[in-house]
Amino acid sequence: MSLLRVSKLKKYFAVKRSAGEILLRVPQRYVKAVDGISFEINEGETFGLVGESGSGKTTTGRLVLRLIEPTEGTIEFDGIDITRLSNRDMRLLRNKMQVIFQDPMAALNPYMKIGDAVKHGLEIHNIGKNEQERKKIVLEMLEKVNLQPEIYSRYPHELSGGQRQRVVIARALILKPRFVVADEALAMLDVSVRSQLLKLLLDLKREMNLTFLFITHDLATTKYMCNRIGVMYLGKFVEIGTYKHIYESPMHPYTKALISAIPEPDPNIMNSKKRFIPHGEVPNPINPPKGCRFHPRCPFSMDICTSLEPQLINMQDGRTIACHLYNSH
Ligand SMILES: Nc1ncnc2c1ncn2[C@@H]1O[C@H](COP(=O)(O)OP(=O)(O)OP(=O)(O)O)[C@@H](O)[C@H]1O
Ligand SMILES: [Mg+2]
Asked: Suppose 240 and one of 78, 230, 266, 308 were both cysteines; which one would form an S-S bond, judging by CB atoms 3.0 to 4.6 Å apart?
């Protein structure tokens, strides 16, 4: 059963105009950060979002939590269209949806003890009979993320980066959410700490039956974390599939480029691996290219790609892809 169903979602940010531009009636322009995406995440599934910087991953994460309002489209959570919910009703749902960001130092109040920070959500939602009971719930949660009870009365600056991120995870999960958006949650950590935390997230996911939207630059982590992966380019999906589809046999030229750009730890393999990195910069999302948005950088571009936007189609192997190379028959 799908827990999250996103349909034709768009987010256009108005570009600020200068006084001179307003005076000269320069038309309002928009950054098309998310430009019509549809996907579903099943209960207990982890859906990965990958793509270059600026492709719209964070905007998608913020939209599905309704931290920002969509320009168009709908988001259904557990069968409820949350795009139409009042703020009051949305607040009731908030504890079921949580987010873990990249920078735990920025997420934590430096003057608040760890115990109080983790407990805060319990107080807001009136969980636990009294102070003592809430403290007990917090200590249990700290244990779940493998933090010692002493941490309870420490301040964020007294902790390591990895410990702080465990605190942020504890705080996000204490209200027993069903759905968690992790936006580059492990990106700032050392490789070894990152793999410990990845394992922790996986254990917690199983134990608490969590559903994840997992946003990452690090394609390698999607292998362990994600059931399916959506590859975004300039606000759209180009390919959606399993790790096997995306990582081991990418079909879309952009996915191929992303995969071949991953540094290979073994230099011998690196040399033999065919590297294909798209030329040029990511185009401006205010004026995305006509036709297929990737065509100016695509080595396989055909005439049709410059004029007709390819639609996502289902392939026989179960993946979805938007590319005229696979669309012509
Ligand atoms: N509040 C905003 N106002 C205007 N433009 C925005 C805003 N937020 C994001 N954008 C623009 O929307 C586009 C998508 O941004 P987004 O942060 O979603 O990308 P991303 O895929 O998360 O990138 P990264 O990998 O760097 O985190 C970018 O062009 C960005 O500059
Ligand atoms: Mg981002």
From this structure: 230
Res 4 pLDDT > 70: yes
Q: Is residue 130 part of a domain?
A: no
Asked, for residue 152, whether it belongs to a domain, the answer is: no
| Residue range of the domain that includes 293 | 2-96+177-326
Query: Is residue 140 domain-resident?
Result: no
Give the DSSP letter string of 34-57: EEEEEEEEETT-EEEEE-STTSSH
Q: For a pocket test of ligand 1, which of 15, 29, 59 has the largest count of ligand atoms closer than 8 A to its C-beta?
A: 59
Does any ligand 1 atom lie closer than 6 A to the CB of residue 56? yes
Q: Does some domain include residue 108?
A: no
Tell me, using a 6 A CB cutoff, whether residue 75 lines ligand 1: no
Q: How confident is the model at residue 281 (pLDDT cuts 50, 70, 90)?
A: confident
What CATH number should be reported for the domain holding residue 306? Answer: 3.40.50.300
Number of domains in the chain: 1
Mean pLDDT of 113-120: 96
In angstroms, the CA 236 to CA 309 distance is 11
Ligand 1 and 58: CB distance under 6 A? yes
Claim: this prediction has a pTM higher than 0.90: yes
Tokens 């892809």 sit on residue: 321
Residue 71 CB less than 6 A away from ligand 1: no
